[in-house]
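Input record (one chain):
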Amino acid sequence: MAAAIAVLIAGAGVTVAVYVNSVDLPADPVKVQASTLYYRDGRTILARVGTQNHSDVPLSAVPEHVRQAVLAAEDRDFYDHPGFSVRGILRAVVANISGKREGASTITQQYARNAYLTQDVSLDRKAKEFALAVKLERKLGKDQILERYLNTIYYGRNAYGIAAAAYAYFGVTTDRLTAAQGAVLAATIKDPFGYDPANDALAAQERWTWIIGAAREKGWLGGALAYPDVSRPSAADAGPSGIVIDRVEQELAAHDVTSRALHTQGLSVVTTLDAKAQQAGLTQVAEHLAGQPKDLRVALVAVDPPSGGVLAYYGGKQRGDFDDASAAHPAASTFKPIVLAAALEAGISTQSLWDGSSPRLFPGRLGVPLRNHNDQQCPACTLTESMVDSLNTPFYAVTEKLGADRVREKAFDLGISPEYGNARALVDAKGDPRPGQTRPDIAIGRYAVTPADLATVYATFAGAGVRHDRHFVDSVTGAGRRRLWKAEARPRRALDRAAAADITSVLAAVVDKHAMTPDRPAAGKTGTQQWGNTSDSQDAWMAGYTPELASVVWIGKANPGPIRDKRGKVIDGDTLPAQLWTDFTREALRGRPVTPLPEPGNVGKAGAFDVKPPAPESEPGGKPVPRDPATRDPGDPGEDARRKDAAAKGKEAPELDTSEEPSTRRKG
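The corresponding structure, as predicted from the sequence alone:
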């Protein structure tokens, strides 16, 4: 038996040796090439992405503690192995068979792949990588391989090689890099985008801490180290398109198309962005912000309802700043259509009657009264009327009847992310009345959501209740027109078609009443989040759609505070955001055929719920008599807490007042 095993091992060794000898070691590394990003038509160029910042340095110019940080991160046994790791190869084979991506390559293998091969995941590529690593170890010394590796690795920020990376992250030459700085650069090797502290500071520092610990275990480091200051990304990719490139790069990485491949392998990436819609977004943002206070921030996201593809995206003026389109802010009244969706799903009609009196006390408010804007009164109000006038008390009553958890789950179904960063979405945070739980204040937009997620929700309404995952990339091809990845449609029904039609009918009435129609039938909702216990606003929203385009506009500040326009007037949802949304939608769809909105589905029961309709004030047939229009506010009513009832009574309860909640932000 032992002899048979020995023969098998010997035979395998001979086979491996023959294969290694059959693989030629190229004389020169593969030439680095820039990639091209196209608009959705596949012909119009959106941007070129490539490594332009590159210069080689000798190994002697790289401090030993920097080299050790790289070894700690990527290959601690580099100077002790023959160029490959049998365990790593086997692990990669198993992962490949199971459809996953597995690294664990040695530095020699990584250099062989980066210098001579593609980044595709296949057994053939892994075998060639192994063979080239063996030949490199025979031809070059360890120091030569490490030097070539450090000069070939992509570190993010268009930095190809250690010299470019030292300057991009710290503004220094390699010989001046500290141990702490070297660990920052070593962290980016694994994921140049994800471990750049400008993109995800928490993940970058966690990776840095792990590398420092690994170096200490090897006895390479002693003493305390602090995370160093890192330069902001260069403005070489200045402008809003830089933020779009970041989103594309992040999405590609999730599909195993690495940042290095994007920046060095001449890929052709067809995005979902529409050239006309994107230009309309940039133009309208610039025009509406002209002359406005400099500290105002804007986000605009437009989504294609039939596919989920992002058609236009504006998250800020330049790359490296917050991406406001991916940062969460209190949703205000733009969240009310989600409550309506949950109600329709439960068999409650848009014509059902609710008590819209103001103020009202609800158990979920723990003694703090809830008011409508300007104390609008509607003792027997349909949900359609409540939405048009943006009354708070009816939607709060609906949510208490359904249960706040049911509304939260419907929000997730429609397109809100269950988590933002490492925190659960749509629940009380630490310091709130019920940490980890969802209170009925969800009905009035108390919890933060991102403009991008809200655009997906409204695209689901526009798509007759069918949700598509939001995405930026349609396809990626490499050398020889080889397809690396293609987006696949995965539609799923999040809401009944008839219920979605009812929501559209209600939101179309909102658009019509507030004169926000963009020269074609449209539906939408504004929202305004109050700043503290004042008459100012901190977040102003407009979310709406046509059958071809769903889009969201948010206006606020980097740090929550009062937002006023150039005339000193408070910015509410029905002012600057609504104007920007209307003009953007008109320009983005100019020249396209007008598509009518669907007829109402008339879902659910239309009776009285928490009110009894006053019989004497009804027309023949039981139709409620319209209320005196003088009791209605012609503008967007904003949120609750515009009143100061609690303060007037000496009851300070900012933790229960939706207006007191600061917006939570995360880096884009």
